[in-house]
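My main concern about presentation is that the manuscript never shows what a single data entry looks like. For the editor and my fellow referees, an illustration may be useful. For illustration, here is how one protein appears when written out as sequence plus structure tokens:

***
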Amino acid sequence: MSVYFNEALSKAAVRDDGYLSAWLSKGNDGTWMVDDTSLRETLTYLVGAA
């Protein structure tokens, strides 16, 4: 997955005033999960892609 992410970033007009963040939540089994909506919004802001 990181290869595809790095490839997408290398082709995108990345804003230099942005940052990447996303909400996390801890599930009942103790694992952490990324909130899809917050990640999508951040990627849209940062690189114009979701």
